Amino acid sequence: MSNHDLSFDDYDEVVNPRPEENDFDAVLAAAMSRRDVLKSIFVVGGMAAIGGTSVLPRMASALESRFAFSPIDANALDDITLPGGYLSEVVVRWGDPLWSGAAEFDHNTRGTGASQEMAFGDNIDGMEVFPVGGRLLLVVNNEYTNRSIIWGNREEGKAAEEDDVLKGKMAHGLTVVEIAEGENGWTIVKDSPFNRRVTPDTEMALTGPAAGDELLKTAADPQGTVALGTWNNCGNGRTPWGTYLACEENFNGYFSAEDADHQVSAELSRYGVSAEDWGYGWAQIDERFDVSRHPNEPNRAGYVIELDPANPDSVPRKLTALGRFKHENAEMVINKDGRVVVYMGDDERGEFLYRYVSNGVYAPGGETDSLLEDGKLYVAKFYDNGSGIWLELNPETTGMASMAEVSVHTRIAASAVGATTMDRPEWVAANPNQAEVYVALTNNKNRGIKPNAGGDETVVGGPNPRAENIYGQIVRWRPTGADHAAQGFVWDLYAMAGNPNLHDDLYAGSENITADNMFNSPDGLKFDSNGMLWIQTDGNYSNEDDFAGQGNNQMLAADPVTGEIQRFMVGPKECEVTGMTWSPDRRTMFVGIQHPGERGDSHWPEGGDAVPRSAVIAIRREDGAVVG
Ligand code: FEO
Ligand code: CA
Ligand code: CA
Ligand code: CA
């Protein structure tokens, strides 16, 4: 099998095989006996049992629909499909230059290291729009690049020269670009003084408990306070003080060792770092990515980054207080007592769900740096009865030597306190109308089959009710007393994706999943200003077998009150739909289309023989009304 065809998680498994689960019969038996328990969760519900009133999804038959569109069918077209009355345009694509002196994208060469550094990065994920001094700044994560596409001009899609490797490296990071709405829709503003590329080489300040710790010191940075760059930025967050949060996810796959037999430490192995990278080859052009020479360098990645887009010269901050893992997004809420709470998922099979609570309180216009440097870190434990608790991670609870160690080896700390292994936590989204939070658990084929990378069992049950979970689910919880800093919460399953055309058991999905709205692998989640929850998918787009009838990856809207879910958009072939935000007037929704044609079967957005290009699209209504 070619490594090109493997997902990040699959690749980690090839490089770092997990121990096999021995007692397979017992695992299956547990899965079967879970059904009755699960039914009882659906019927009476964890929240119902505790709160007295059922809040579980019910179809909206008796209620007025809050959907402002007619749902669309699934399809497998190489195009964007929207409901009647909606239109879209491309705002910016991978390789579009941000400055007028830089070269336009070249479909033959797919650019150079120098052109890529001056251009919009690849594979769009999290994004936000910031109004700054009468201008609008779009900030976007450029998560990674598909080697088969960016090096598609070379033999077998592999780098042929050092500059190819540099081009791939410069396609990663963040892009800040001013945008403007004209007669023909949204375009970027070339040469804006705010335009900026943040790359894997941009200087960053290490902050929080691990800053200056031995674990972060390297030959190039003996103080352990200045790290270079960010890469594999997946989901995002934003703060009420106008900064952007970018989350480092699969940071491990960029490190390698010249000696293929080099053994990394157990701590690095927990994060999937090994002697072999994923084919990016960065160590060939930058020796800090050689883990045998610089074993602490991987400890300086895997964080949430804070960026101030209003100041193009600002030094981004790596926030070690929020823990080190494969961060998906960072959903911030200001708690009713003023403390800053950040919910975060660790997207790998059987990893955990986290919460950060600041020690200080947010005051508009006040000092904010300490709010993301000084606080407490927690991990979630779910009980089958619909309740749960947050377990604090500190030296006393974990047996670790210091908060620095907890902040760097966060996964190991969470294993030590017995947190609940989850089915790949992707985006977390907080309901703006009440203290209620949702997480997309995208899928987990290893549930009930294999432990996680730390050896923690992946028991079937609770918020992860299906063995070999190929479809994914959305779990939600409400903190005790509507207090996001409380220890306790109650939870239920908002939706279990499935295929009701094929299955009549748990794999059919929850009752709000129908033949008309079915999908798999929920990933992006965000609430709009009307309190509707938008769901983006990153799943199996084969449209065959267990996924027959589900078509390409897509975007849906969900009513948190009624449980109703309707399909809003279908993306082009072989893409993932990820990242969304709105213009300040809410008349435009910006959406990311990541890796169209990742297996070679798309020419979106330009069509013809064009190279497929990840792009941000703007979605508007023909009548000019708000879109969420
Ligand atoms: Fe980059 Fe978990 O998705
Ligand atoms: Ca994701
Ligand atoms: Ca995903
Ligand atoms: Ca992706």
What is the annotated CATH architecture?
A: 6 Propeller
Strand order of the largest sheet: 13-14-15-16-17-21-20-19-18
Indicate the structural class.
Answer: alpha+beta
Count of runs of 4 or more consecutive helical residues = 11
* CA(first)-CA(last) distance: 43 Å
Mean pLDDT score? 92
- Mind telling me the CATH superfamily name? TolB, C-terminal domain
Task: Kindly describe this structure.
The protein has 628 residues and is of the alpha+beta class. It has a single domain, classed as 6 Propeller (Neuraminidase), CATH 2.120.10. Helix content is 12%, strand content 28%. The chain is globular, with a radius of gyration of 23 Å. The two termini are 43 Å apart. The model is unreliable at 17-62 (pLDDT under 50). Residues 125, 143, 234, 249, 328, 347, 426 line the site of MU-OXO-diiron.
